[in-house]
Structures are given as C-alpha cells and as structure tokens.
Amino acid sequence: WPSFTQPIQPNAIKYEKDTSFGMVRVEVMCNTCDAHLGHVFPDGPEPSGLRYCVNSESIILEKEV
C-alpha cells in the first residue's frame, strides 16, 4: 500500500476504531462519503510519527507538468 505521513487536508478524513480480523487498528475514512481509504499506524517517520497506509484505488495520480 502507498503510505504517507499526513493527510493532504486534515478535515478531509475521519478516524474510526477498527477491530476486524482480531486486530485493533485505526481506520481512515473519507469525511464526505465515508469511503474506506486505509489505516493509520503510529510507526511512521518524524515529525508526525504516523504512517497512513492508503488503498491505491482511492488515490488519483496526476502527471507533473
């Protein structure tokens, strides 16, 4: 999964506790449509210390011009 250290806009996502599959994780969801985007883990690099693992289907890549 692609991973990031922060959301592009803090108010674009929301967080929910995910206890599926016998694990305890934090799910990241779209704040507008509630779509599942991925999970956030507390083992990322500084400065945030967070690692947002995002499903590639929820990412739109654009070419740099």
TrEMBL record:
Q: Which UniProt keywords apply?
A: Oxidoreductase
Q: Does the keyword DNA repair apply?
A: no
Q: Name one GO cellular component term.
A: cytoplasm
Q: Which reaction does it catalyse?
A: L-methionyl-[protein] + [thioredoxin]-disulfide + H2O = L-methionyl-(R)-S-oxide-[protein] + [thioredoxin]-dithiol
EC no. given is: 1.8.4.12
Q: What class of enzyme is it?
A: oxidoreductase
Q: Which GO terms describe its molecular function?
A: peptide-methionine (R)-S-oxide reductase activity
Q: Which InterPro entries match?
A: Met_Sox_Rdtase_MsrB (IPR028427), Met_Sox_Rdtase_MsrB_dom (IPR002579), Mss4-like_sf (IPR011057)
Q: Does the keyword Oxidoreductase apply?
A: yes
List residues of the MsrB domain: 1-64
Among the Pfam families in the record, one is SelR
Q: Which GO terms describe its biological process?
A: protein repair; response to oxidative stress
Name of the protein this chain belongs to: peptide-methionine (R)-S-oxide reductase
Query: Which species is this UniProt entry from?
Result: Xanthomarina gelatinilytica
